[in-house]
Amino acid sequence: MKKQDILQEDTQRTKGLDARESNIQAAIALADILKTTLGPQGLDKMLIDSMGDSIVTNDGVKILKEMEIEHPGAKILVDVAKTQESQVGDGTTTAVLLAGELLKKSKELLAQNIHPNLIAKGYKEVSLKTLTLLNSISQDVKTNNKKLIEDIAKTAMTGKIAELNMEKLSSILFEITQILKTENSLSINKLKIQKIPGSLEESELIQGIVLDKNPAHSNMVKTLKNPNILLVDFALEIQEIEADAKVNINSLQEYEQFIESEKKYLKNLVLKIKETGANFIVCQKGIDDSVAYFLAKEGILASRRTRKSDLEKLSLALKTPIVSSYEDVNKENLGTCVLVQVKEIENEQYIFVENTPNKQTLTLLLKASTKHVRDELERAIEDALGDLNSIMKSKKIVAGGGAIECELVKELQKELKYLTGKEELIAKAFTESLLIIPKTLCQNSGFDEIEILSKLQKEHENGNSNSGINGFKGIVKDTLKESIIEPINVKEQAILSATEATCMILRIDDIIAARKLDKSHEFKGDF
Ligand code: ADP
Ligand code: MG
């Protein structure tokens, strides 16, 4: 029996060189797409989804997520970006570009008849050496150093948005780190980013949680000092009877009885809430209009359909549980804070829950003019927070602007001098791949790549280990002094996952693709 016979008809199979070639080609093509977004002068991509909605972004992982990539080889690179995002929160483009370059170089090695397994093994070994060197080159820092923290935040946000007021945001980010830092991380789950129309200069940090919610009724009280707050995640309304609900109703009379009993339950519930003395209710589900009217009349403020994540943050902020049933509505489960205020900003209402008992819960009110800018700003801040979280963990930094990559290349060349033959070629390919970062930074800033790169390498030969590119000035300088600083973890993770993905792609010699389901034939007995 031929191997092919064991597969279903219509299964597509690509083998050997073709399979590897196809994966490598697709991954390189994907990396090339991201290339122009790297660094301070990186350009943006406009992505339009099938509904016609558009986003403009410079963020590697966001671009890849929106692109609906089909090719299996390219998908491996999407995973590289996703891993980088989840492990570090920044450096997604760096990781993908590095993987793309490693693959480009491995194509040349394959063309010289070097076995893919040997390439993968060599890459892995050199990557481990690179990580050790990275560690020894990095510098230890203190996490309460304001200028340093602000510089790391600025390096992460540079190039994301033209109108960015870096001073303002980086100083807020420093404040956040000092409040949310623990022994070796940042409690990012205690921070809410609330985007609001306005000017960036007016962005501010609030101690407490800001809800983007109207009060459930327009006549509700707008200001409460030291309120009694009840957090609930069940509905304060008559539940709709769903088609598959287990309620046996056989007549109109039974239906009316059912509604009556639901109304009675609601009435009792509202009276019970009132008895506890609660005057601010935050509800994850719906609140019936009649209930909202009653609450308003009783001087009780309420927010309905509040996001689960907001309710959880409020629970942390108030050190109060979220109540899930009628039985648990009682005084013991009420929380308080100094002030609750309904504020109107640009025709939208927000509920500010301020000065909460847990001082470590914060809302960053992120103000900017348009939705596009607000969204991209949020992504830039998330990158910065990722870097700041990393620095709390490792407490180690490296010089940005391509400096660390150049230094690694110099050190690797020294260490790997003893290699010969195929091993030497593989090690050289890996080492040179690191230069894709300074090269791309040069290209994107419109500088003369050859001139700057040779100058850079000379500087490193002369012992100036922090020499890198200032992407705005086009000069080779000590980038630590130029305040272009990154946490070690960004580079560590990028090298790790780029190498892993490259080795994985190199080892694949067979792509077996099942027949795609033709949706028009689904459920028509057409099997
Ligand atoms: P990534 O998704 O990899 O984080 P970015 O677009 O954020 O991609 O670019 C990060 C790269 O830009 C890093 O190598 C960083 O050192 C570099 N960089 C940041 N600011 C500057 C600057 N002012 N000059 C030169 N390089 C910079
Ligand atoms: Mg970045």
Mind explaining what this structure looks like?
- This protein is of the alpha+beta class and 527 residues long.
- Helices cover 47% and strands 16% of the residues.
- A hairpin with a 5-residue loop joins β2 and β3.
- The longest helix has 25 residues.
- The chain is globular and about 85 Å long.
- 42% of the residues are buried.
- The C terminus is likely disordered.
- The site of adenosine-5'-diphosphate has 24 residues, from α4, α14 and β15.
List the helices and strands and how they pair.
Elements: E1 12-15, H1 16-35, E2 45-48, E3 54-57, H2 60-66, H3 72-87, H4 92-111, H5 116-137, E4 139-140, H6 146-157, H7 166-180, E5 191-197, E6 204-211, E7 223-225, E8 229-232, H8 252-276, E9 280-283, H9 289-297, E10 301-303, H10 308-318, E11 339-345, E12 348-354, E13 362-368, H11 371-394, E14 396-399, H12 403-415, H13 421-433, H14 436-445, H15 449-461, E15 467-470, E16 475-478, E17 485-487, H16 488-507, E18 510-513
Parallel strand pairs: 5-13, 8-9, 9-10
Antiparallel strand pairs: 1-18, 2-3, 4-14, 6-12, 6-13, 7-11, 11-12, 14-17, 15-16
Helix pairs in contact: 1-3, 1-4, 2-3, 3-4, 3-16, 4-13, 4-16, 5-12, 5-13, 5-16, 6-7, 6-11, 12-15
Bound molecules: adenosine-5'-diphosphate (ADP) and magnesium ion (MG).
Residues 37-40, 42, 60, 90-94, 155, 158-159, 400-401, 437, 441, 469-472, 484, 486 line the site of adenosine-5'-diphosphate.
